[in-house]
Amino acid sequence: MSVAVISSQVGKTPNDTAYSFVFDEAYRLAKRGIAVHVVRANMERDSFSFGMHFHGLERKINMRGVISVLRDFHIYPPTFLLRKPATIYWESLYATRVTKVIEQYGIDVIHAHFAYPEGLIGLLARKRTGKPLIITIHGYDILLEPSVGYGARISKRIDAIISRVLKCADAVIAASQATFIEASKIVNDVNKVRLIPNGVDTRRFRPDLDRICVKKKLGIEGLTVVFTLRAHEPRYGLKYLIRTGPMVLKERQDVVFIIGGDGSLRSYHQQLATKLGVKENMVFTGKIPQSEVPHYYAMSDIVVVPSLQEGFGLVVSEAMACGKPVIGTKVGGITDQLIDGYNGFLVQPRSPAEIAEKILFLVDHPKEAKRMGSNGRKMVEEKFDVERRIDKILLLYRKLSRK
After folding, report:
1. Are 37 and 27 in contact (CB under 8 A)?
2. Distance (Å, rounded) from C-alpha 117 to C-alpha 52?
3. Are residues 62 and 99 in contact, defined by beta-carbon separation less than 8 angstroms?
4. Are 22 and 14 in contact (CB under 8 A)?
5. Are 37 and 2 in contact (CB under 8 A)?
6. Residues of the chain predicted below pLDDT 70
7. What's the pLDDT at 86?
8. Domains and CATH numbers, the chain
9. In the chain, is it the N or the C terminus that has fewer CB atoms within a 10 Å radius of its CB?
């Protein structure tokens, strides 16, 4: 069986951070014997990496793409055509490349990650080849958080095309109850929407990893570690975690906050820590290499996910797999993973005081923290192991390819 995976910016190795969750899934499909052909949006030559074929755009000007623009006009909602001609042409060019890969390699299934633009590209390729289309929605393409401008569907034009794409897809994969519910509101046939939770590699993320090496590297031996790994962007709510600093440190001076990740707000967050007088107890690591991420979880005592919205929030499962108690906000897919008081705590978004209270409880009650961490590991093994997700995706591939 073969699949054309449409992901515009996914990397080619496990060390690439761009859409690493797409790479991990495609890599595991390849290990299960699926011929995986990843079609990216870059100008590049065909290549083979980690058991997968990678294809990019061949040329900027392609007459087949130009002709296809005119042929595919009926697919677009009227308002969606009121955009730059160059954007519409690029979409057609990308779909033309996907179509060529499907025809050249006899692809059985098209699998697009994100409803737009990848889902639209997949729909165009489906119209041209007749191959079944699966779209995995990840959060930004389906959920909204208008307070921080989060969500592709804030644009009425994008909302219209996402609606068209999801209705025309043969199947839609949602990773969480939140994304499942939103997709079900759009898709006419709710049976097309499949709830398949994201998964974590339980052999890579595990409780027995070395927790000393990173502590030595950061110079934080002997301190209790509160860790988070999120991009410094508005929707991840990192400023609310930083604002817990004065409240926590007033009670416990032996706590250090490790804030991993990079982004547009990193400088602002560092300035906020300085303004609040907690700079010495907050370490901003910047981007953490993929190979080192499990060890950061391992050296932590508590993991906090203060997001304002999450399609799934794989970081929660990663932390749980490492046996850590998690404090997460009651948004999106986080609520699918955390049971309050069992494997961590659920708190209201934008609530530094509530986060601080839970941090202090876990610091002061290490046996409870350990119990919650053990429960989290157990839950991941039972519900959020990545191999379970791959099993379900393979079943869906086989079902659709037989139609």
Report:
1. no
2. 22
3. no
4. no
5. yes
6. 59-83, 403
7. 78
8. 2-199+386-402 (3.40.50.2000), 213-383 (3.40.50.2000)
9. C
